[in-house]
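Re: the 164-residue chain
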Amino acid sequence: MSFIFSLEELQICSNDYTKILSDYGFQHENLKRLYITNNNITDWQSICYLGHLFSHLETLIASDNPLESFRSNEDVNIYLTYLHTLSVDKVQVSEWDDIIALTKLPCLKALRIHLAPLLKPYQKDERFFLLLGYMKNITKLNGSVITANERETSERRFIRYYSQ
């Protein structure tokens, strides 16, 4: 069974999971990438508990889950201290406060989020500058590396957008 502890990538997609409970008796420190797409998880707290179970998690692909928010009553983001890449495409978030909540992830640099009710009313370029305006540490958005020029232009548009 020692081969399990050398596991760096795990795919648990399409299993109809609705909740992840943190079992404090289990921790796997070598897992770096976790794919948990196409399940029925609605609670951000469940997603964050994955960071407790897999304490060195760097990449989390949680798309196609009906996540309703990236906020939690508890400070569960502390479990995702190494997470630098997050894919949450096709979620159900509908408020900018949810995007702001993601800024509490200390190492997050790459974000993939396309289809969400929050972004639906905006054109592609508007989504781009609004997401970058809220998320200062992101260096890669929806698969595209953010250049210094794009960052500056987006931040200026963000300021103009909210000053009107």
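The two ends are 61 Å apart (CA to CA).
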